[in-house]
From TrEMBL:
Native organism taxonomy: Eukaryota, Metazoa, Ecdysozoa, Nematoda, Chromadorea
Highest taxon of source: Eukaryota
Protein name listed in UniProt: PAN-3 domain-containing protein
Keywords annotated in UniProt: Signal
InterPro entries: PAN-3_domain (IPR006583)
Length: 189
């Protein structure tokens, strides 16, 4: 009976890789200033603690910058670089980071926000099947943000069979199968 039920459900099952979401997400505060970004960041007149909390709660916020009269929020695909500053500047940014454990590493042995790591990745979702990855790397004077998107394609209807083509050789499970065809050009997707 369970085999029959499985066979009935099989046509409606779709498989899509969903990357694991980041855990132990924290806001790490460092001295810095957004250097390269697109769009006009959302601004708020909240106090700094509330700005950090709001960015942490907002799924697509990855950087919040302190302003004299509030803060501004930078979304995952809007921020490219943050300039490192020292304490004398007084300018702070909060960077959303996935830490390896639930406790924040000590900043006196390895400098935040990467704490001695070459890079840090944050994987988040909008809750509608789209996953975003923000990766932070470091140079001597900046933190660089790169982002990418992963989205499952729309399920193909079970009755959709545009053509049949016999393979010239047997295709076994575990083998890699490539098809040739025309791909969309740059900015034509």
């Amino acid at each position: 009976m369970s085999l029959t039920l499985l066979l009935l459900l099989l046509p409606s099952i779709s498989i899509c890789y969903n990357p694991p979401l980041s855990e132990n997400v924290k806001m790490v505060v460092v001295y810095g200033k957004p250097l390269e970004f697109c769009a006009n960041p959302e601004k708020s007149e909240e106090n700094w603690a509330n700005c950090l909390q709001q960015c942490w709660k907002q799924w697509d916020c990855v950087v919040v910058s302190q302003l004299p009269d509030g803060c501004e929020f930078f979304k995952i695909q809007e921020i490219q670089k943050v300039t490192k500053l020292d304490r004398s500047s007084g300018q702070k940014v909060g960077i959303k980071i996935s830490l390896p454990s639930d406790t924040c590493p000590r900043g006196d042995t390895e400098a935040p926000p990467l704490f001695g790591n070459v890079s840090s990745s944050l994987i988040i979702t909008d809750g509608e099947g789209t996953y975003y990855k923000s990766q932070i790397t470091e140079t001597s004077d900046t933190w660089i943000f790169n982002s990418s998107i992963h989205q499952c394609l729309i399920d193909i209807h079970e009755d959709y069979f545009p053509y049949e083509h016999n393979l010239t050789s047997p295709f076994l499970p575990g083998e890699t199968f490539f098809m040739r065809g025309k791909t969309a050009g740059y900015n034509q997707q």
